[in-house]
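Entry, Tuesday afternoon. Goal for today is a structural model of the target with NAP bound, before we commit to ordering more compound. Inputs were pasted exactly as handed over by J.K., no edits. I checked the ligand SMILES twice against the vendor sheet because last time a stereocentre got dropped in transcription.
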Amino acid sequence: MKAVIQDRYGTADVVTVGDLPDPVPADDEVLVRVRAASLNGSDREHLLGRPFYARLAGLRRPRHPVPGSDVAGVIAAVGRSVTQFAPGDEVFGELAGYRGALAEYVATRPRLLARKPPELSFLDAAAIPQAGCIALRATLGLKPGDRVLVNGAGGAGGALVIGLAAHLGAAVTAVDRADKAEHLLRIGADETIAFEDQDWAEQRDRYDRIVDLVAHRSPYRVHRALRPGGTYSMVGGHTRVLLATLLAGPTIRWTTGKRVAVLVVPQSRADLEAVTALVVGGAAASAVDRVHPLEEAPAAFARLAAGDYRGKILIEVP
Ligand SMILES: NC(=O)c1ccc[n+]([C@@H]2O[C@H](COP(=O)([O-])OP(=O)(O)OC[C@H]3O[C@@H](n4cnc5c(N)ncnc54)[C@H](OP(=O)(O)O)[C@@H]3O)[C@@H](O)[C@H]2O)c1
């Protein structure tokens, strides 16, 4: 099969397109004929091998040479013990271990796959899994009138976080590079902050929820921007911030009543189905940056690595 190959960590030039043997599904796996995939910030982290948590995919080199977590396609074959899917079913989901989507075929456990709604194209469906599940969890419990700040909102995950927060009636401040402000307003932000010009963490008592997709500040700084009772959710960012947030969160809660925590987003079919129903119902939409054919994956990774994109980079597998 044709596949994107990234068998070591590095810059985008380690990504090539080549031929690999077709995967053979185990008894408890399905074989998916991939039709579309999408790239996330986590694919850049798995390319670079940093932050350190990206090395869970392999300490010295990726254990699985094919990158890509978010996938949509058609079941081509099922293992002997699989009962929930049959050949011909259209499915989508986020692959365990964030690897394997960028190829003509992937063998995977069916646990995380959901049936693709007929209203969605394969490309639309492939844009949802990781970003959608993050957005669903990051916006849980928001009420009309809440003020929400999304840090790193112009990348792969931001549009669905902004969309779901706005759908729940929150006022959204989106933070990213100055040249992404127009994009952020187009996808539903009420106001924008250019992080090169202004440090949102200098604000006091302003937000009910902060969703941080690119955390690099100390937890002792970010809580001051929260209103009383507010929540800061670290979704992605530096490993040292992750550790500091885990350690400092309970003390900050005890002394200020504010919640500063790492948001652990489970890979869950139920969450994927819930957020997809919201997307199909028009509550929120992915932002599509550009569609590349599989052969152009090295160029797509070069754009991902350079931050030269707004929203989702999609890969179509004809
Ligand atoms: N918590 C969990 O369970 C869980 C699950 C899955 C994934 N994740 C994590 O979630 C994150 C995914 O976010 P994503 O896919 O939306 O990432 P993304 O596509 O990389 O987007 C991040 C955005 O932030 C911008 N940015 C860079 N530096 C910034 C700064 N200092 N201040 C504000 N914005 C800045 C980036 O701009 P440039 O690109 O121009 O630099 C980009 O637009 C990843 O770290 C991933 O590992 C977490």
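The pocket of NAP is lined by residues 40-42, 44-45, 130, 134, 151-152, 154-158, 175-177, 195, 213-214, 235-236, 263-265, 307 (CB under 6 Å).
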